[in-house]
Amino acid sequence: MGANISLLVLFMFLALCSAFPGKRRQYTPCKHTVLYFHDVIYNGENAANATSAIVAAPQGANLTKLANQFHFGNIAVFDDPITLDNSFHSKPVGRAQGFYIYDTKNTLTAWLGFTFVLNSTYHQGTIIFAGADPILKKTRDISVTGGTGDFFMHRGIATISTDAYEGEVYFRLRVEINFYECW
Amino acid sequence: MGANISLLVLFMFLALCSAFPGKRRQYTPCKHTVLYFHDVIYNGENAANATSAIVAAPQGANLTKLANQFHFGNIAVFDDPITLDNSFHSKPVGRAQGFYIYDTKNTLTAWLGFTFVLNSTYHQGTIIFAGADPILKKTRDISVTGGTGDFFMHRGIATISTDAYEGEVYFRLRVEINFYECW
Amino acid sequence: MGANISLLVLFMFLALCSAFPGKRRQYTPCKHTVLYFHDVIYNGENAANATSAIVAAPQGANLTKLANQFHFGNIAVFDDPITLDNSFHSKPVGRAQGFYIYDTKNTLTAWLGFTFVLNSTYHQGTIIFAGADPILKKTRDISVTGGTGDFFMHRGIATISTDAYEGEVYFRLRVEINFYECW
Questions:
Q1: Domain membership flag for residue B71
Q2: Is residue C32 a contact partner of residue C178, using CB atoms and an 8 Å limit?
Q3: Looking at residue C101, which CATH number applies to its domain?
Q4: How many CB pairs under 8 A join A and B?
Q5: Buried/exposed A87-101: b ≥16 CB within 10 Å, e otherwise
Q6: Nearest residue of B to residue A20 by CA position?
Q7: Which of chain B's residues have a Cβ under 8 Å away from the Cβ of A63?
Q8: A2-25 and C2-25 helices cross at what angle (nearest 10)?
Q9: Nearest-CA distance A163 → chain C (Å)
Q10: Pairwise CB contact (< 8 Å): A56 & B44
Q11: pTM of the complete model
């Protein structure tokens, strides 16, 4: 009888152990959040409102240009407000800070490295992102490689979509963040 | 008797528990792959074939230069084809997209940030890399900090070696990726 | 009796299982180290000693400038000596290599991407860092997203503080690294 129950304990234990990789394969996020950030690109006239600018470019540096289109080689730096909903006029809960580099000569693709610096009653801390951004796709997955504060040591996947844009001056990005490693 | 078996179960459990860190110390990859990427640097004449270009440089920007050698301060952006073997003419399975910055004044060293965007029957997804690249060393280890798709949440180490080069126009890099966190 | 002990084993097992997330929440580092790195910025006259330089800037590239202050848009590249204590003259144990980009128009904030390349009897390997650096704050937390060699697959948090500075030519940064994932 005791042996039977011990066996039962053993099976329960093994079932739980094997549950760990199984659980991971289900891809259930331990934390989920949706945030928006607003990129107002400097066009020479909107310095007061602009939140990002091209800071290096082959043509600016008189370097021979590999491609005349798709902004190839432009490096843009941004410090964009983050909001909880999709309104540019909502109270910011933080700033998206970092850079992107246009890196293809035959389509619009960028490489992103940036950080969400969140500072509100809602969230305190930073989230670090990196990855390739094929801008014309409806959704793009990039990596969340780390975090600090409320997001201490977190990892996950961020799904980015262009929620709205106005010419080449305003872009609103929706970022759905699914964390799969929470601490 | 029941107590003895229970103790046995306990010991088996503790053995299994302590096996987790032990397993990690053996550094057994959960996934392994070797890929090649091909960097054709723009030299002003090969725009059709070029896959990378210097997009910012101190001399280009008329900034005072710290060093005249080793390309110090040059920022190169690339969108290179990835192949399964070492032939430039093999069918690409994806693109290596990102940048490197030459960062030393007395030798050839770069800082790498890039992503493999894989899109084939073989692999679907992205792999994110970051790290220091002491180019003249035979092999260089950098970090795989994340991934998406087939490489969802993966982490690992990439060992890079210069497989071939032709002057300053063509570089072929062999990348051996060992994933130690698979999902 | 056997059943009771089996139950005890079960409870012990469950207690241990639930201890894993609990342990993480205590944030006990598995490895801890403090290092200093020394950034000697090139000012046009100190080429022999300089370890970093501005390699791209909107004004350098004749790009219209978004902001005239806070170095907005400047990209600096560095290859700084790392020491175990806060003396610039101590024997270096490695190099801090990477870049920062000034990314705000109304205060001093940078985005950091760099690697510690350690090569001493003390440490062999690399540590990869990324994150936002609000320079004027006393301490800033960034992410350690990976490592190689002695820091194989490590992750953690780095707390950066400006230990000393001299004008705009010398900065000494204290980096307290707490690893929470060791292998």
A1: yes
A2: yes
A3: 2.40.480.10
A4: 140
A5: eeeeebbbbbbbbbb
A6: B183
A7: 53-57, 60
A8: 20
A9: 23
A10: no
A11: 0.86
Write b or e for each residue in B53-75: b if 16 or more Cβ atoms lie within 10 A of its Cβ, otherwise e: bbbbbbebbebebbbeebbbbbb
Residue B17, φ and ψ in degrees, nearest 5? -60, -50
Interface contact C6-B10, CB threshold 8 A: no
pLDDT band, very low/low/confident/very high, at C68 (cuts 50, 70, 90):
confident
For residue A18, what is the nearest residue in chain B, using CA coordinates? B16
- Cβ-Cβ contacts under 8 Å, C47 against chain B: 66-67
Is B9 inside a domain boundary? Answer: no
Instruction: Give the three-state DSSP class for B22.
Output: helix
User: What was the pLDDT predicted at C64?
Assistant: 72
Specify the number of domains making up chain C.
1
**What local confidence, expressed as pLDDT, does residue B3 receive?**
53
**Assigned token pair, B177:** 């990726």
Q: Could you tell me the residue range of the domain that residue A111 belongs to?
A: 27-181
- Where are any strands of DSSP class E within chain B? 31-40, 52-56, 75-83, 94-102, 109-119, 124-134, 140-149, 155-166, 170-181
Task: Give how far Cα A47 sits from Cα of A82, A165, C44, Å.
Answer: 19, 18, 30
Q: In chain B, whose CA is at the least distance from the CA of A66? A: B47
In a domain, C151, yes or no: yes
Neighbours of B174 (CB within 10 A): 16
Determine, for residues A9 and C13 on separate chains, whether the beta-carbon distance falls below 8 Å: yes
- Does residue C7 lie within any of the structural domains? no
SS3 state of residue B127: strand
pLDDT digits (tens, 9 = 90+) for A95-119: 999 999 999 988 999 999 999 999 9
pLDDT at residue C119 tops 60? yes
User: What backbone phi and psi angles, to 5 degrees, belong to C48?
Assistant: -65, -40
Amino acid A36: pLDDT: 98
Rounded CA separation A40/A170 (Å): 5
At B133 the three-state DSSP class reads strand
Count how many pairs of residues, chain B against chain C, have C-beta atoms within 8 Å: 139
